[in-house]
Design brief:
Heat Shock Protein 90, 3 domains, 5-stranded mixed sheet, elongated, alpha+beta, disordered N terminus
Length: 365
């Protein structure tokens, strides 16, 4: 069933007739430093203009008046450059250092230019220049790292939404093709039973409708188990995979290495993600492999959880596989979201081997 997109009420889109319109002012949240940083980034030109004006005013006041000593001017300019470096990065800082260096050099060599300014030593200027450049470089590194992690987080969120949407699509298809068709047949059978027919025919149709209802109930229970298997939380990953193997529709042998027996308490995201990948791999083996048996093994490899699902069926070419729904792409995305790796090795008439390696994140007891 398609859900129509949300449409805002008319009262929320325009003010009522005869009433004054109001403008909503955004509320700033976070610490004072975060609010100032946000304001500076939103008003970058204004902030840069203010700092540039302050530097120019300081230098001009030093040239035209004796009230502002050269040492004070030097330190004020250095502080303003450091603030520029912290807020706006290396490129803007290098440009302003080059511009500010000109009047500072003129002031330090005033007699050469015929000016009667007090003597001023710029011996510390290279050190101050280096400090400002380092601050700007570190600010750029922090900004680049923050943007990189924000991009990674956005990609992970998009992948998660893709997996969720694919699973919703699969559930909708299973409801339509499984439960929906059974309920449709049951409705038609009950309609026929309510018509003009003999008592025996009516009884047969009612009995058939009851069987269809039982089938639909079993389908719903199976679908609910696929969505959130209770065994996963009650007994852990190994027991849940053993139960899954018994419900796969063909023989599946499960082997758990002694180091993982009993299975440690894993993080819920790791447990569910590994279970879904094994579930998809076994479902693909049951539907497509034609193998008489499949094998699932759980073990340890360099402090990582190693899961292998393999069969000796007809195999396939992973590069040319048609992958509707969640399928192989969803398995790869789940593995990446878990911080692990997934590899699928298969070839025609050579079986299939699915290998999953994920960090073994154990819940502290």
């Amino acid at each position: 069933m398609a859900i129509p997109p949300y449409t805002a009420p008319v009262d929320d889109l325009a003010p009522h007739v005869g009433q004054p319109s109001t403008t909503t002012i955004p509320t700033w949240t976070g610490t004072r430093a975060e609010r100032w940083t946000s304001w500076v980034h939103l008003n970058r030109r204004l902030a840069q203009g203010f700092l540039d004006t302050a530097m120019v005013a300081t230098i001009v006041a030093t040239f035209v008046s004796t009230l502002l000593p050269a040492d004070v001017m030097f330190h004020v300019v250095f502080v303003l450059l450091t603030v520029q470096a912290f807020l706006f990065g290396l490129r803007a800082t290098l440009l302003r250092i080059g511009i500010v260096s000109i009047p500072l050099l003129v002031y330090a060599n005033a007699r050469v230019f015929g000016l009667s300014e007090p003597e001023f030593d710029l011996a510390e200027w290279p050190l101050m220049f280096l400090i400002a450049v380092l601050v700007a470089w570190m600010a750029d590194r922090v900004d680049t790292t923050a943007k990189r992690y924000a991009s990674l987080f956005r990609q992970a969120s998009e992948r998660l939404l893709t997996v969720e949407e694919d699973e919703r699509r699969r559930i909708a298809l299973e409801l339509h093709d499984g439960v929906g068709q059974v309920l449709t047949a049951m409705t038609l059978t009950l309609d026929a039973a309510g018509g003009r027919a003999s008592a025996r025919a009516t009884e047969q149709r009612v009995t058939s409708a009851r069987r269809m209802a039982a089938t639909a109930l079993a389908e719903v229970r199976h679908l609910a188990h696929r969505m959130r298997p209770s065994r996963l939380e009650e007994r852990g990953l190994a027991a849940a995979i053993r139960d899954l193997a018994g419900q796969s529709g063909f023989p599946v042998r499960v082997h758990v290495e002694p180091q993982l027996d009993p299975m440690p308490a894993l993080e819920p995201t790791t447990t569910v993600g590994v279970y879904r990948i094994v579930q998809e791999a076994l479902a693909n083996a049951a539907r497509h492999s034609g193998a008489p048996v499949a094998r699932v093994s759980l073990g340890l490899h360099d402090s990582n959880l190693l899961v292998v699902v393999m069969d000796e069926g007809r195999g396939f070419d992973p590069r040319a596989a048609v992958d509707p729904g969640i399928g192989l792409a969803g398995m790869y995305e789940r593995a990446e979201l878990l911080g692990g790796t997934l590899s699928i090795h298969s070839a025609e008439s050579q079986g299939t081997r699915v290998t999953l390696v994920v960090p073994l994140r154990v819940i502290p007891q």
